[in-house]
Design goal:
Layout: E1 4-7, E2 35-45, E3 76-77, H1 79-93, E4 104-105, E5 110-111, H2 131-136, E6 151-153, E7 156-158, E8 169-170, H3 182-185, E9 196-199, E10 216-217, E11 220-221, E12 225-226, E13 234-244, H4 246-257, E14 264-265, E15 276-287, H5 289-294, E16 300-304, H6 308-322, H7 326-335
Antiparallel strand pairs: 1-9, 2-13, 2-15, 3-7, 4-5, 6-13, 7-13, 8-12, 10-11, 14-15, 15-16
Helix pairs in contact: 1-4, 4-6
The chain binds zinc ion.
Length: 372
């Protein structure tokens, strides 16, 4: 089975844009409640995980590249990586614009920008933003203003007694399918792009796909030697948010928690089976500044343990009823299902020369499931 698939976009429903509610406000323009506070989460690696440390990029190919650490020498998942992950999920499930994707695939070799309707392209006015740009900011060059966003995520640091290192491995060379296969990237009618690309999880019982050695192409290494962190490495971080409207707050909770039978995927080597993580919320603090003004000492809500999930579920129910892009959730549920289907192996069919055969013409991703 191809290692990724696309999550569909509902082309009948362009992103809903509005002016972001920003600072110096205690309530929204219609007096609605705004959410401010922070959410603590634990993050555990369910498969080996690798996010490289730019400082450890040794020119010696016999020394494996190391996972990123902070100044205190703790292994981390950078806050920026987590923010990118959550943003992408909000765009996907909450009907955001196409920020990360603007039609370019395979490092610029092909461009399907024409197939992205204007309404769905990246927001360009800071007074008229989709849900993802309102939450995470809009920093596009050559547009009207910027917006810094209302969600901040710190680096997730590993608990010192929960660090496990995987043995060094040589990565695969093929990180993108080689021959360009249009029927993967466009929908069945060839009118629209197929959607947003997500990688399947691999079984945690299997080892990641790897090569036996460094592969040279034209005298230069075509793969990398890396040392991932192993399963069960555990991190913690804090997500701060301010002035979120109810739908934005619920979208954040959904992006963090997904559903019980789903997991997130982050970092390097997703097609090889790296980067499956479980994000577990442990503590939520909400500060209601209107209540604090009228009644000093009040206005703090804390949820933890058995109180936390019913509160989250109530926000999610409203979001599912009013905001969720149903077809996107159907697809993401299938691609990010956990545990993954034990009967499916993931690899690029191009590795087995499948793209070069007549059988592949017009075939879509689901058709690769039984390619030998
Ligand atoms: Zn946007």
């Amino acid at each position: 089975m191809n290692p990724y698939d696309f999550v569909r976009i509902d082309w009948n429903r362009p992103p809903e844009r509005r002016r972001p509610v920003w600072h110096h406000r205690l309530v929204g323009p219609q007096g609605q409640r705004l959410y401010m506070g922070h959410l603590d989460v634990d993050i555990s690696a369910e498969t080996p995980l690798f996010i490289g440390d730019p400082r450890s990029n040794s020119p010696d190919p016999r020394k494996p590249a190391q996972s990123i650490k902070n100044k205190q020498e703790e292994y981390i998942i950078p806050g920026s990586s987590l923010k990118g992950l959550l943003r992408n999920i909000v765009e996907t499930l909450g009907n955001g614009c196409l920020t990360l994707f603007d039609g370019g695939y395979e490092r610029g070799r092909v461009n399907y920008r024409r197939e992205v309707a204007k309404d769905f392209q990246h927001c360009s006015q800071n007074t008229d933003l989709c849900i993802a740009c309102r939450m995470f900011g809009m920093l596009k060059e050559g547009t009207h203003g910027i917006f810094l966003g209302k969600v901040n995520i710190g680096d997730a640091c590993a608990y010192s007694d929960k660090v496990y290192r995987y043995d060094p491995i040589y990565t695969l060379t093929l990180m993108e399918p080689k021959p360009h296969h249009a029927s993967f990237y466009l929908d069945a009618e060839k009118q629209h792009i197929a959607g947003r690309k997500y990688y399947f999880h691999h079984s945690p019982d299997q080892e990641p796909l790897s090569e036996k050695k460094l592969i040279l192409m034209g005298g230069r290494p075509a793969n990398r030697y890396i040392q991932p962190l192993d399963r069960d490495t555990q991190f913690h971080t804090r997500i701060d948010f301010t002035n979120l409207e109810a739908d934005e707050f619920a979208a954040l909770l959904l992006a963090v928690t997904l559903e019980k039978d789903m997991r997130h995927k982050i970092g390097y080597g997703k097609p090889m089976g790296l980067g499956s993580i479980f994000i577990d919320p442990t503590y939520l603090k909400l500060v209601d500044y209107t209540a604090r003004y009228t009644q000093p000492g009040s206005g703090i809500t804390e949820k933890t343990g058995g109180d936390l999930w019913p509160f989250i579920d109530a926000q999610l129910d409203t979001f599912y009823a009013n905001n969720l892009v149903q077809i996107a959730m159907e697809d993401l549920r299938r691609i990010w299902r956990w545990p993954p289907d034990p009967n499916v192996d993931y690899y690029y069919p191009s590795k087995r020369d499948w793209f070069d055969t007549e059988d592949s013409i017009g075939k879509r991703i689901a058709d690769t499931r039984n390619v030998p």
